[in-house]
Structure formats: C-alpha cells, structure tokens
C-alpha cells in the first residue's frame, strides 16, 4: 500500500501543493555501504542499533559501534571509512551551508503570536521544547501541530506525516478530529497520517525514538516528531536524589539522539515539559 500523502483542506478553494521530490529530505541509507564492500550482515547489525543512514554512521562514535554485538575494531574502521567516502568532505563553504539552511522547514503552531515568538514556527533540524505548568495547553499544542504539519506550506504546514510518542496517555483521537475539522481537513485522514506510540518507561521511550529513526529512513514523508512529555517517565524511573546523576546522563543521551535525528532526516522535533519537572 502506498504511503498516505498529506491531508488536504477539504473546504478551501485553493488547491493544496503536492509533495515535491526535490523538497524531500535527502539522505543515504546504510544500504549504500554494500556498494563499498560492507556485507549485508554488518549493515543489518547497524540497523539493529538504530543506525540507519550514512549520516548516522558518522554521528556514532567508534566506541558506541563497538558495543554492537558482532562488531570488531576492524569492521568498525572499515564501515567508518566507507561512510566517509560516501559523504565526502566534512567541511563546506559558507555558501553551501546557506544552501543547506534553505531546506529547513517551518511548521506553524496554529497561533500567529507563538509563531512570531519562534521566528515563524517550529523549525526542522532543531528541538523545540514547550514547557509550562500543569494544564496550560502543552498537549493541546501537540495535537494542533499534529494536524498543521500535514497541511501544505501555504497553510503553515509541511505536507508531511507526524510521529507522536505519548508518555502520559493524553493523546485523544477525538481532539485530532475536532482540530482537523477547524482546518477543513478530513479527521480520519489526519489520524491516518499520525504514527502514534505509548511509552511506558524511559527505556521504552528511547526504544520508540530509535524506531522512529528507522521509520524516517524508510518513509521520507515524515516532517514532525512530538514527545509529550519528555521528562514524565524519567521522573518516575529515577526518583531519588541518588539517581539524579544517572537520570541526567540518560536524558542527555536521549536529547543527543533526538538532535541527531532532527538533523539527519530534516524533521521538526517538539517535546513538552512540565515546569515543575526538574
């Protein structure tokens, strides 16, 4: 079955823009390594460790790759060398960097005031954190953006799909339908374009993030990843003062992974955070 495209406003007289191939994220998957002498078994091992692209290989340290079962120093070095050949020089001119920045996608929050504060909306290749006290609209914003991201660019969207990781069980399909109707979008189509998962502990949350990486490598239509909320499960799993250091270390690793994913696949990443969560 072909992937479902972005939801289209059904009540608008303006035709939605189609997804243009040149605007899609461009990246090489690790399968490209096979053309440079890396066997399929080792490529499969990389994928099992959530390393799905050539950029992902470069972003991963040799030390981390050696932790993958069946990886030796010789194999890791060979993979690293092949990835460098595929990606080319790590240095770019200022003009090339400027051209790359043109690919950054901006997704509206649904509020002109908030968009103005953010310089136009939620940007891809970066993490945007929404924080506030309990019941201040953080989850509502996540629901709204899940719909807006599917709209064409002229409506403030990115013509793409959304991945949504829910750590507190607050995702409500009926709210998505209601928001979709407000934007003139078919509710069921909007829900079809949202890939949802419920995380039950901080380790599971990391596993789901790794799965998102694999999904993004397979399907270039994804434009937004939402985590609501990023700290809730850490606060439960690491509750004592003696565990604070480990909690911060695990959180830092997760944020590093998310930052790499946002740049790797040119997706916008939004997480919510309750103000009293330290």
UniProtKB/TrEMBL annotation:
An example Gene Ontology molecular-function term: double-stranded DNA binding
Report the domain of life of the source organism: Eukaryota
Write the record's keywords in alphabetical order, separated by commas: ATP-binding, DNA-binding, Nucleotide-binding
- Please indicate if the UniProt record lists DNA-binding as a keyword: yes
The residues forming the signal peptide are none
SUPFAM superfamilies reported in the protein's UniProt record: P-loop containing nucleoside triphosphate hydrolases, Rad51 N-terminal domain-like
Biased composition of type Low complexity is found at 1-18
Query: One GO BP annotation here?
Result: mitotic recombination
Domain RecA family profile, first and last residues per copy: 103-278
User: What start-end ranges are recorded for coiled-coil regions in this protein?
Assistant: none
Where does the record place the region Disordered? 1-24
Which terms in the GO cellular component ontology are assigned? condensed nuclear chromosome
What the entry lists under Pfam families is as follows: Rad51 (PF08423)
- Provide the protein name: Rad51-domain-containing protein
């Amino acid at each position: 079955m072909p992937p479902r495209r972005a939801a289209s406003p059904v009540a608008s007289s303006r035709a939605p823009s189609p997804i243009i191939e040149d605007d899609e994220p461009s990246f090489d998957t690790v399968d490209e390594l096979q053309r440079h002498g890396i066997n399929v078994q080792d490529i499969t091992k990389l994928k099992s460790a959530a390393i799905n692209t050539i950029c992902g290989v470069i972003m991963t340290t040799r030390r981390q790759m050696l932790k993958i079962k069946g990886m030796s120093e010789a194999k890791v070095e060979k993979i690293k060398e092949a990835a460098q050949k595929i990606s080319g020089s790590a240095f770019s001119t200022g003009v090339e960097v400027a051209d790359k920045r043109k690919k950054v996608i901006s997704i509206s929050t649904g509020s002109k005031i908030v968009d103005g504060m953010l310089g136009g909306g939620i940007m891809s290749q970066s993490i945007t954190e929404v924080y506030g006290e309990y019941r201040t609209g953080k989850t509502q914003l996540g629901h709204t953006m899940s719909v807006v991201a599917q709209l064409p660019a002229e409506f403030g969207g990115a013509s793409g799909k959304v991945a949504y990781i829910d750590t507190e069980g607050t995702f409500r399909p009926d709210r998505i339908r209601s928001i979709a109707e407000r934007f003139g979008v078919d509710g069921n189509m909007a829900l079809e374009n949202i890939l949802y998962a419920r995380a039950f502990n901080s380790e599971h949350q990391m596993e789901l993030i790794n799965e998102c990486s694999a999904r993004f490598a397979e399907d270039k239509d994804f434009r937004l990843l939402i985590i609501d909320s990023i700290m809730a499960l850490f606060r439960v799993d690491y509750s004592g003062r003696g565990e604070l250091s480990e909690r911060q270390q695990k959180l830092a690793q997760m944020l590093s992974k998310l930052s790499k994913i946002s740049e790797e696949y040119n997706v916008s990443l939004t997480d919510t955070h309750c103000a009293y969560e330290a």
